[in-house]
Amino acid sequence: MKQTPSLLLAALLCATSAQAATPTDILSKSGCLACHQVEKKSVGPAYKVVAAKYKGQDAAALVMAKVRQGGKGVYGPIPMIPNGPDKISDADLATVVDYILKL
């Protein structure tokens, strides 16, 4: 039976694809890192600055709404465009917002 290596390879590929994406993977895949970085300001604020702004608050729903609706003026004059579910799913958005607020 020469099929055993093929079956093993298929099982490994399935196991790898079933692993959950990390917040950094999601941020990269969704294009968020084009304008934001964790430590320093880029086009938009650093994620650590966002985390500091909402420290001690239950702000996940507020931050998620800001990502979905976009906005301007909170961190400077450059507006953030709205980011719909076609760009980042609700589940992925919840994951990254939780990650950002814990920085």
Structure description:
This is Cytochrome C. Keywords: Electron transport, Heme, Iron, Metal-binding, Signal, Transport. InterPro entries: Cyt_c-like_dom, Cyt_c-like_dom_sf, Cyt_c_ID. GO terms for molecular function: electron transfer activity; heme binding; iron ion binding. It is built from five helices and no strands. The protein has 103 residues and is mainly alpha-helical. It has a single domain, classed as Cytochrome Bc1 Complex, Chain D, domain 2 (Orthogonal Bundle), CATH 1.10.760. The protein is globular and about 35 Å long.
Q: What is the string of SSEs from the N terminus onward?
A: HHHHH
What number is the mean pLDDT? 88
- Give the helix proportion (percent range): 40-55%
Poorly predicted runs of 5 or more residues: none
Strand content: under 5%
User: Radius of gyration over alpha carbons?
Assistant: 18 Å
Rounded to the nearest angstrom, the distance between the terminal CA atoms is: 52 Å
**DSSP strand count:** 0
Number of domains: 1
Structural class: mainly alpha
Overall 3D shape: globular
Keywords:
single chain, 103 residues, mainly alpha, Cytochrome Bc1 Complex, Chain D, domain 2, 5 helices, 49% helix, iron ion binding, electron transport, iron
Q: Nutshell version of this structure?
A:
With 103 residues, this protein is mostly helical. It is 49% helix and 0% strand.
